[in-house]
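Why does residue order matter? Because the sequence determines the fold. Keep that principle in mind as you read this record.
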Amino acid sequence: MGSDHYFSASPASPESLRRIRVTLAGRDLEVTTAGGVFSPDHVDSGTAVLLSNTPPPPPSGNFLDLGCGWGPIALSLALDAPHATVWAVDVNERALDLVRRNAEALGLPNVNTARPDDVPHDIVFRTIRSNPPIRVGKNELHGMLERWIPRLDERSDAWLVVQRNLGSDSLQRWLAAGFDRGYSVHRAATARGFRVLRVRRHGSPPSEPIELPAS
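Structure:
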């Protein structure tokens, strides 16, 4: 892709639409993917570890797939919880278009696609699930998590999958240091070189802003 990245807002690489077979939420499905998005040929290993090591989502409420790509996490959530509203969020317009295509083809009207700034500010999430774009850099990654984790509803969880050799342990320490009032952070699973991190919000947000450690 040259200088083009899966986290580019408008990928310049050819779209090259393709159909692939995947298993999501225990169902064998055919979905559409394309060049210029993350893992266009299969469900990548990290996402597979996340999907295999997280509990079923709540039956209803707003869910967030942060950095949705072509949609494996968002589609799985929507299949498992048809009465929920799944927000598939990405900066990549091509990825958002693919999620819309796939949700429509699979008969999933409960999937909303949105750029980060287009998610209504008053929405809180019953669960957040993400294979975050580690390669955007530490500052960008931390900024994403600072923005979205505080939007967890009370007694709700964020589940993040991070490759061990790309800094999962240091990210866990950063999360635990920053989200230390009203939250808990721990490693929920380890598989295939990945860690699944769980961030739980226990109660109401603190009366003072959370001050996260310097990057």
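The two ends are 29 Å apart (CA to CA).
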